[in-house]
Amino acid sequence: MLWPDAIRKNVKTGPDREIAAVYPYRSACPKSVWRRLIGAATKDLTFAGYTNYFLWLEIPNLRTVLRRKAESGCHVRFLVGDPDSEVTRRREQLEAVPLTVGTRIKITLDELSKIADVPGVEARHGDDHIAMSVFIFDDEMLVTPHLAHLVGHDSPMLHLKRHQDDGLYDRFAYHVTELWNTGRPITEFTPR
Protein backbone atom coordinates (compact mmCIF):
# COMPACT_ATOMS: atom_id res chain seq x y z
CA MET A 1 0.00 0.00 0.00
CA LEU A 2 2.85 2.39 0.74
CA TRP A 3 4.58 1.77 -2.59
CA PRO A 4 2.68 2.69 -5.73
CA ASP A 5 2.82 0.11 -8.54
CA ALA A 6 5.07 2.36 -10.62
CA ILE A 7 7.71 2.45 -7.87
CA ARG A 8 7.43 -1.30 -7.18
CA LYS A 9 8.01 -2.05 -10.86
CA ASN A 10 11.18 0.07 -10.99
CA VAL A 11 12.71 -0.38 -7.54
CA LYS A 12 13.59 -3.82 -6.25
CA THR A 13 12.31 -4.24 -2.71
CA GLY A 14 12.27 -8.01 -2.21
CA PRO A 15 14.84 -10.78 -2.12
CA ASP A 16 15.68 -10.28 -5.79
CA ARG A 17 17.14 -6.83 -5.06
CA GLU A 18 20.57 -8.50 -4.94
CA ILE A 19 20.29 -9.34 -8.64
CA ALA A 20 22.06 -6.52 -10.46
CA ALA A 21 21.95 -8.08 -13.93
CA VAL A 22 21.19 -11.33 -15.73
CA TYR A 23 22.90 -12.52 -18.88
CA PRO A 24 21.51 -15.39 -20.98
CA TYR A 25 25.13 -16.38 -21.73
CA ARG A 26 28.29 -15.79 -19.68
CA SER A 27 29.89 -14.55 -22.87
CA ALA A 28 27.19 -11.83 -23.09
CA CYS A 29 28.53 -10.13 -19.96
CA PRO A 30 30.62 -7.16 -21.14
CA LYS A 31 34.36 -7.40 -20.51
CA SER A 32 34.08 -3.98 -18.89
CA VAL A 33 32.01 -5.55 -16.08
CA TRP A 34 34.76 -8.09 -15.36
CA ARG A 35 37.46 -5.38 -15.49
CA ARG A 36 35.47 -3.08 -13.19
CA LEU A 37 34.77 -5.81 -10.64
CA ILE A 38 38.37 -7.04 -10.55
CA GLY A 39 39.74 -3.49 -10.48
CA ALA A 40 37.45 -2.32 -7.68
CA ALA A 41 38.02 -5.30 -5.36
CA THR A 42 40.25 -4.53 -2.38
CA LYS A 43 39.63 -7.46 0.03
CA ASP A 44 38.60 -10.60 -1.82
CA LEU A 45 38.93 -11.95 -5.33
CA THR A 46 37.76 -15.55 -5.56
CA PHE A 47 37.60 -17.41 -8.85
CA ALA A 48 35.72 -20.67 -8.26
CA GLY A 49 35.29 -21.77 -11.85
CA TYR A 50 36.14 -25.31 -12.80
CA THR A 51 38.78 -24.23 -15.35
CA ASN A 52 38.90 -20.41 -15.08
CA TYR A 53 40.54 -20.64 -18.49
CA PHE A 54 38.54 -17.85 -20.14
CA LEU A 55 39.78 -15.27 -17.63
CA TRP A 56 43.29 -15.33 -19.09
CA LEU A 57 41.84 -14.62 -22.54
CA GLU A 58 39.22 -12.05 -21.58
CA ILE A 59 41.04 -9.90 -19.03
CA PRO A 60 44.10 -8.13 -20.44
CA ASN A 61 47.24 -8.57 -18.34
CA LEU A 62 45.32 -10.49 -15.65
CA ARG A 63 48.41 -12.00 -14.06
CA THR A 64 49.90 -8.54 -13.42
CA VAL A 65 46.58 -7.23 -12.12
CA LEU A 66 46.26 -10.15 -9.68
CA ARG A 67 49.87 -9.70 -8.54
CA ARG A 68 49.23 -6.02 -7.77
CA LYS A 69 45.95 -6.81 -6.02
CA ALA A 70 47.61 -9.41 -3.77
CA GLU A 71 50.57 -7.15 -3.05
CA SER A 72 48.17 -4.42 -1.91
CA GLY A 73 46.44 -6.79 0.55
CA CYS A 74 43.63 -8.32 -1.51
CA HIS A 75 43.16 -12.05 -0.92
CA VAL A 76 43.24 -13.81 -4.33
CA ARG A 77 41.92 -17.39 -4.45
CA PHE A 78 41.45 -19.84 -7.29
CA LEU A 79 39.43 -23.04 -6.95
CA VAL A 80 39.89 -25.22 -10.03
CA GLY A 81 39.11 -28.78 -10.96
CA ASP A 82 41.72 -31.51 -10.97
CA PRO A 83 42.81 -32.05 -14.58
CA ASP A 84 43.38 -35.76 -13.90
CA SER A 85 40.17 -36.52 -11.98
CA GLU A 86 37.35 -38.78 -13.05
CA VAL A 87 34.96 -35.79 -12.79
CA THR A 88 37.08 -33.93 -15.36
CA ARG A 89 37.17 -36.94 -17.70
CA ARG A 90 33.36 -37.29 -17.54
CA ARG A 91 32.90 -33.59 -18.27
CA GLU A 92 35.26 -33.83 -21.25
CA GLN A 93 33.09 -36.62 -22.68
CA LEU A 94 29.94 -34.54 -22.21
CA GLU A 95 31.38 -31.38 -23.75
CA ALA A 96 33.15 -33.20 -26.57
CA VAL A 97 35.19 -30.15 -27.63
CA PRO A 98 38.79 -30.13 -28.89
CA LEU A 99 40.11 -27.87 -26.10
CA THR A 100 39.54 -30.30 -23.24
CA VAL A 101 38.57 -29.43 -19.69
CA GLY A 102 41.88 -30.84 -18.42
CA THR A 103 43.85 -28.71 -20.85
CA ARG A 104 41.93 -25.58 -19.85
CA ILE A 105 42.67 -26.30 -16.17
CA LYS A 106 46.37 -26.83 -16.96
CA ILE A 107 46.50 -23.45 -18.71
CA THR A 108 45.12 -21.81 -15.55
CA LEU A 109 47.62 -23.70 -13.40
CA ASP A 110 50.44 -22.55 -15.67
CA GLU A 111 49.33 -18.91 -15.38
CA LEU A 112 49.00 -19.23 -11.60
CA SER A 113 52.47 -20.79 -11.29
CA LYS A 114 53.85 -17.46 -12.50
CA ILE A 115 52.43 -15.66 -9.45
CA ALA A 116 52.79 -18.50 -6.93
CA ASP A 117 55.49 -16.53 -5.10
CA VAL A 118 53.10 -13.68 -4.26
CA PRO A 119 51.76 -13.79 -0.68
CA GLY A 120 47.96 -13.66 -0.71
CA VAL A 121 47.54 -15.77 -3.86
CA GLU A 122 46.16 -19.25 -3.14
CA ALA A 123 44.87 -22.12 -5.24
CA ARG A 124 43.11 -25.41 -4.52
CA HIS A 125 41.59 -28.30 -6.43
CA GLY A 126 37.93 -29.20 -6.00
CA ASP A 127 35.56 -31.29 -8.08
CA ASP A 128 32.25 -30.37 -6.44
CA HIS A 129 31.79 -27.13 -8.38
CA ILE A 130 31.75 -28.72 -11.84
CA ALA A 131 28.17 -27.53 -12.44
CA MET A 132 28.51 -23.94 -11.22
CA SER A 133 31.11 -21.19 -11.29
CA VAL A 134 31.12 -18.42 -8.69
CA PHE A 135 33.40 -15.40 -8.96
CA ILE A 136 33.59 -13.09 -5.91
CA PHE A 137 34.71 -9.45 -5.96
CA ASP A 138 34.31 -8.14 -2.39
CA ASP A 139 30.52 -7.60 -2.10
CA GLU A 140 29.66 -8.46 -5.69
CA MET A 141 29.74 -11.74 -7.55
CA LEU A 142 29.10 -13.38 -10.87
CA VAL A 143 27.45 -16.81 -10.80
CA THR A 144 27.20 -19.20 -13.74
CA PRO A 145 25.08 -22.34 -13.35
CA HIS A 146 26.33 -24.66 -16.09
CA LEU A 147 23.65 -26.16 -18.29
CA ALA A 148 23.69 -29.80 -19.44
CA HIS A 149 26.43 -30.40 -22.02
CA LEU A 150 27.24 -26.75 -22.64
CA VAL A 151 30.58 -25.12 -21.99
CA GLY A 152 30.66 -22.23 -19.51
CA HIS A 153 30.40 -19.37 -22.00
CA ASP A 154 27.10 -20.80 -23.30
CA SER A 155 25.51 -20.96 -19.83
CA PRO A 156 23.57 -18.09 -18.16
CA MET A 157 25.12 -15.76 -15.60
CA LEU A 158 23.80 -13.70 -12.67
CA HIS A 159 25.49 -10.54 -11.38
CA LEU A 160 24.76 -10.21 -7.65
CA LYS A 161 25.40 -7.38 -5.18
CA ARG A 162 25.21 -8.07 -1.45
CA HIS A 163 22.38 -6.10 0.23
CA GLN A 164 21.18 -8.34 3.05
CA ASP A 165 22.09 -11.15 5.39
CA ASP A 166 21.27 -14.62 4.10
CA GLY A 167 20.32 -13.33 0.67
CA LEU A 168 21.43 -14.77 -2.66
CA TYR A 169 24.95 -13.34 -2.30
CA ASP A 170 25.45 -14.91 1.15
CA ARG A 171 24.03 -18.26 0.01
CA PHE A 172 26.50 -18.50 -2.88
CA ALA A 173 29.37 -17.16 -0.75
CA TYR A 174 28.68 -19.91 1.82
CA HIS A 175 28.76 -22.47 -1.00
CA VAL A 176 32.18 -21.23 -2.14
CA THR A 177 33.52 -21.23 1.44
CA GLU A 178 32.47 -24.86 1.84
CA LEU A 179 34.07 -25.80 -1.48
CA TRP A 180 37.27 -23.97 -0.53
CA ASN A 181 37.43 -25.62 2.89
CA THR A 182 37.11 -29.09 1.36
CA GLY A 183 39.44 -28.30 -1.55
CA ARG A 184 42.80 -30.01 -1.91
CA PRO A 185 46.18 -28.26 -2.08
CA ILE A 186 47.53 -28.01 -5.61
CA THR A 187 50.96 -29.60 -5.76
CA GLU A 188 51.90 -27.69 -8.92
CA PHE A 189 51.14 -24.41 -7.16
CA THR A 190 52.84 -23.80 -3.85
CA PRO A 191 52.64 -20.21 -2.65
CA ARG A 192 55.31 -19.14 -0.19
What does this structure look like?
By secondary structure, this protein is of the alpha+beta class. It has a single domain, classed as Endonuclease Chain A (Endonuclease, Chain A, 2-Layer Sandwich). The protein has 7 helices and 8 strands, in the order αβαβααβααββββαβ. The protein has an 8-stranded mixed sheet, sandwiched between helices. Strand 5 and strand 6 form a beta hairpin. The model has no long low-confidence stretch (mean pLDDT 88).
Question: Helices and strands in order, then pairings?
Answer:
Layout: H1 5-10, E1 19-23, H2 31-40, E2 44-48, H3 53-58, H4 62-71, E3 75-80, H5 86-95, H6 101-113, E4 121-125, E5 132-137, E6 140-145, E7 157-161, H7 168-182, E8 184-185
Parallel strand pairs: 2-3, 3-4
Antiparallel strand pairs: 1-7, 2-5, 4-8, 5-6, 6-7
